[in-house]
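Work Package 3 (structural annotation) set out to generate three-dimensional models for the target panel prioritized at the project kickoff. During this period the team completed the workflow that converts sequence records into discrete structure tokens, so that structures can be stored uniformly alongside our sequence database. As a representative example, we reproduce one entry of 422 residues exactly as it appears in the project archive.
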Amino acid sequence: MTEKLLHFIWQFQYFNKTALTTTNGEQLTIIKTGTLNTNQGPDFLHASVKINNVTLVGNIEIHINASDWLKHQHQKDKNYDNVILHIVWKNDKPLFVNNQLLPTLELQNLVAKILLDRYNNLMQTKDTIPCQKFLPALSEIAWLPWKERLAAERLESKSLRILFLLQESNHHWEEVFWWLIAANFGIKINVSCFEEMAKTITVKILAKHKNNIHQLEALLLGQANLLNNTFTDDYAKNLQKEYQFLQHKYKLQTVTENVQFLRMRPANFPTIRLAQLAMLIQNSSHLFSIIKEVKTVKEVREMLSVTASEYWNNHYILAEETSTHPKQLGNQMIDNIIINTIVPILFAYGLYNKDEVYKDKAIQWLQQTPAEKNTVISKWVNVAIKSKSAFDTQALLQLDKVYCKQLRCLECAIGNKVLKIV
């Protein structure tokens, strides 16, 4: 038994309430369970019960054993003076507060064994989704409000980091968007390096060179330490020369972290991603302003559908020629950018400015973006939980990371429903 489970049982009244009595034999009627307290003090506030014919209003404290009241030193804490009912699993000791017996309700003989068995099963299972064997009993409708809450939670969580970056940028949204989209082009392994690179080149510098793709490539590749070699290739040598001039002009400091090429497909090589990013900058100045104004996710996709400059048609890295293949940003990468950069910053912008229009647009675009495919989502597909869009997959990623992996079943709407099926 845990106190968290007792909180859950009390909050949702999952016990036999027929002819309730206190441990002292007094008739007990529960009028109001109270509000769960997440701060210091009693567990539930503003509760109301009737003992015999007297109605009491106050707080509820919950323990596994009645004697835990003394172990926790509540008798010395004035915050507990207004406790009207002590809920315990086992009443191992009568308690007196201000020389009066504290009304106590013992639950150990009132809770269905199947609920306890099911909870233990959830806590002890080796399944990566603790409740997976119970999921077939739940309808798809049962998921809808919880998915909405999870998706919102995930966006709110991402917004916290974005608002932190906003402070770092001295409240410059265009700068923050540049940092975020550059990091997104890093594809996991080079995320931190690309973000560090972006922070060394201001949007003001980028704007000055937006009409020259070679200068943009020189800035991005050079700041990522990709122009340090001795090249025989004319294009690479020209980029290197251009970069040396720009580095001196703007007094640029290169990144401390080196980009990685290992264990990735050539299409994801940092050279290709930076070349595509340079083309995106050339095609669209003031990127965040555009994102705020466009109405549809289709327009966003069109803006992101860029192809690296001609040199990269037959190169994956500098000075090493390959067969010809234009390096266009693929649909999967475009989806990734919409999901992980564009939607979160739009939501954060709406949150910051208390403007529901941007938050609603962010959620709508997420709903219009295809569902993600990865190992976590495959796990849910295997237990017949399907996703219609990125809105659903983002909700499941939040569920997996924040609830399932941490066994927070009692705080999960699905976990609640599983325990309620008794």
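The mean pLDDT is 95.
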